Amino acid sequence: MEPTRILAIRHGETAWNVDTRLQGHLDIPLNEVGLRQAQHLAKALVQGDAIDAIYASDLSRAHTTAQAVAQLVGQSVTTHVGLRERHFGAFQGRTFAEIEVELPEHAWHWRKRTPDWTPPDGGESLIALRERIVATVDELAARHPGQQIVMVAHGGVLDILYRAATRLDLQAPRTWQLTNTAVNRLLWTPQGLSLVGWGDTSHLEALGQDETTT
């Protein structure tokens, strides 16, 4: 089977990204910067190799980003709940600082990236998140051998994809960026993912450095 080329992309910026407020499954829209990021992303991708399918999380910040690309490349967006961000339970809607003060015991597990720890009130463990993301990518990528597809998702999803492609443990310290609308390139085969390139933000240079690092 020929490999599937994947362009894995985090959604554009939201107001809650700027505030470091956890979104999780809450449906927070793109802000003005995020909308512009999506447009610059679309203009860059339309100049590259043909895109055969576009998949996105059903949350609006990801779907809106994907839709900007779809309009320029002549594709539709297929949503998949398996591409949603991690469910952060009681952490959703709180900033990191608020979590430290209000839920200190749980904040410790958060900092340590305890793999089987589940955020209170219906959250998702890192192990469960990894299983969900890997299964979703396997399902979608298997439909497109020899083709190139776009997957627009979330920071936590992109983190799992990087770890899966580089065989890094869930608790390994993160040394890679998860920039809004950066282009991340992966190859998929039935044996798993491999990393081709990560964190291409060249299309965002016109927006200014302050808007590419949030």
Judging by the overall fold, what is the CATH architecture?
Answer: 3-Layer(aba) Sandwich
Uncertain regions spanning at least 5 consecutive residues: 209-214
- β-strand percent reads 15-25%
Mean pLDDT figure: 95
Query: What characteristic shape results from the CA principal axes?
Result: globular
The spatial strand order of the largest sheet comes to: 3-2-4-1-5-6
Q: Please name the fourth-level CATH homologous superfamily.
A: Phosphoglycerate mutase-like
Helix count equals 7
The number of domains: 1
The first-level CATH class name = Alpha Beta
Question: Could you list some keywords that capture this structure?
Answer:
disordered C terminus; six-stranded mixed beta sheet; 17% strand; Rossmann fold; 36% helix; 7 helices; alpha/beta; globular; 214 residues
Please, could you describe this protein's structure?
This protein has helices spanning 15-18, 32-45, 60-73, 96-102, 104-112, 126-141, 155-166; strands spanning 4-10, 53-56, 77-79, 148-153, 183-189, 192-200. It is globular. A hairpin with a 2-residue loop joins strand 5 and strand 6 (192-200). Residues 209-214 have low confidence and may be disordered. It has a six-stranded mixed β-sheet, with helices on both faces. The protein contains seven helices and six strands, in the order E-H-H-E-H-E-H-H-H-E-H-E-E. The longest helix is centred in the middle third of the chain and has 16 residues, at 126-141. It is α/β, with parallel strands linked by helices and 214 residues long. It has one domain: 3-Layer(aba) Sandwich (Rossmann fold).
